[in-house]
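Q: Could you predict the 3D structure of Energy-coupling factor transporter transmembrane protein EcfT?
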Amino acid sequence: MRGHAHLVSAYVPGSSWLHRAPLALKFGLLVAAGVAVLALPGPRPRAVVLAAVVMVHLAAGLPARRLVAPLRSMWLFLLVVLGYRWWVDSLPAALGVAAGLLACIYAANLLTSTTEVQRLLDGLVAAVTPLRRFGADPERFALTIGLMLRSIPFLLGSLHDVRDAARARGLGTSPRAIVQPVLIGAVAYARQTGDALAARGLGEKAMD
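A: Sure. Here are the predicted structure tokens for Energy-coupling factor transporter transmembrane protein EcfT:
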């Protein structure tokens, strides 16, 4: 089932300079891209930020198809945003918004594509640890993020599988043929995840 294939992370094994860079530096680059997009509202500056992120992507030896994947997933959203901004403002403003969104998405992909999930979670634990004095549980926080990173791709993959199966049966436009199997699969996945956590004693800990 393709949904299960989505359980693997977006990490791309490699030995490039970006793969070897400290997690703090890569996170800093992500924040810098976001700040630049917010601080430079014009279409040209945002296009420069987008071009810089794309250049870093290619310099890190990451597959070029990873630049196309977000476009395939969110082309409708981008089209709506472009149309709305063009209508209420101007075409340059609309292009600037689209360039800013893509720059932030590609920057986030740089982080996840060159950093293993476990390393990301370890970094989150280290970042949240100072909050332990206020009652925060860094390990549980990292576990929650890890479950989210695995659950969302699984559910998206499940949706694609069910939709393809419905189309093969000539039911591609039937909401019931898509929604019901996806909900059943989501409930089953949630129960399996809960059972796995309980088997490790994590579920009992959460009940305390």
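Q: Anything worth pointing out?
A: The CA atoms of residues 19 and 35 lie 23 Å apart.
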